[in-house]
Amino acid sequence: MLLSAVLSAVLLAGLWWITDQTIRDSFGASAREGVDVDLTGLVDIYASGGQAELEQRIADRLAMVPIDAGRAHYLLADRSGNPIAGDLARWPDLDPQISESGMIAIGSRTHAYARATLISEDLALLVAHEPPDRAFLLTRVGLVFLLGGAVFVGCIALFAQVANVRVRAKVARVGEAFRRSDEPALDRLAAPERPDEIDQIASQASQAVKRARQLMLAYRETSEQIAHEIRTPLMHLDSRIQKAIAQDPALAARANLVEARGDIKRLVAMLEALLDIASSKAQTGDTRGMKPVDFSASVRQICELYQDSADEAGYRFEWDVAGGVIVPGDEAQLGRIVTNLLDNAFKYNRPGGAIRVTLEPGPRLVVTDEGPGIAQAEREKVFERFYRGRDTDPDIQGSGMGLALARAIAERHQLSLRVAPTHPGATFILAPAADMRDA
What we know:
Layout: H1 2-63, E1 72-78, E2 83-86, E3 101-106, E4 110-118, E5 123-129, H2 135-180, H3 183-190, H4 197-229, H5 231-246, H6 250-282, E6 291-294, H7 295-313, E7 316-321, E8 326-329, H8 331-348, E9 354-360, E10 364-368, H9 402-412, E11 415-420, E12 427-432, H10 433-438
Parallel strand pairs: 7-9
Antiparallel strand pairs: 1-2, 1-5, 3-4, 4-5, 6-8, 9-10, 10-12, 11-12
InterPro entries: HATPase_C_sf, HATPase_dom, His_kinase_dom, HisK_dim/P_dom, HisK_dim/P_sf, Sig_transdc_His_kin-like_C, TCS_sensor_his_kinase
Catalytic activity: ATP + protein L-histidine = ADP + protein N-phospho-L-histidine
EC number: 2.7.13.3
């Protein structure tokens, strides 16, 4: 604010100096022009009326007192510089032979612009004009600049102060949001109503903080759950391998080793699912690397692949896929949602039951089976990692990771996955998050 005021004052002072010099130069040019015109007129009078007429006209002009212009002075002298007519007592230091001009002293305090010239071999004429009184005009101009400058500098200072207060308030709000580090405050920073440069920086910083928080949260959850959940499978695996080593019969050892391999495969699948969930959660809201995906073609291809499995299991498998459904995202991950939902439907469907897949523009994907369904109290829990329903058949293999991974991928693509309230059977709906909120 102080710098703005100082710069404004300096600029105004420079502008006033330029204006003052322009006014002084204008008065000087006017005085020179007046002297030349006056001198030319007197020379013409001498040429037409002679010396006597010239002396009379000089006397007449000296008798007039100008109101607006500066006072005029004259001197008609002989060749030796002795005064003949006029109000000047002596010839100044100007050469009449070359019509020299310049400033001369009039008394002890006054100066005037003068020009001297020869009007005959024996006569020299000098005309001098005092500059008009510039003090009043310069004072008025200086006063205007002073008052106007004060108002201008005051306005600049006021605007700077308002901007300073606004910037301080924004910075304080940003600092408070980062200190509190809560989601609503960071969301407000990420989507300002009237963004400026500070808002853009705050928005980028807020998104970076939120992304870092998601990464840390995903890392912590994955680490904790891996440490907790992997202990039991590893103990079982160790026990079975010990049994296989201790048993002599080759067939029994082979069977135990086959079971051990199955446990290892399930363990690897669980670890991969955990990592995929963590990666999807960390990338939620990050659109980098996404591109338009023909979701219709992808869903249709997956359904065709599952048709053979449906025939082998004795399920009636139907699908109705609308064409031209384009979704921005990662094609492999979007396909993972569909395969996980179909795996879940195939796993829990009743014998001979139907499985239906519907895709509509939106996108809106619906996967329905005719299994035991999902109780209302468990419709959100089924999306938690490692959760399996209370009524789940213990013979059905699974780690409880498929639906958790499907929802994590959906959230990364700004989609929502939920269980619709249907019975019997279960219905999963994948649609844009905004449509789910409005539903």
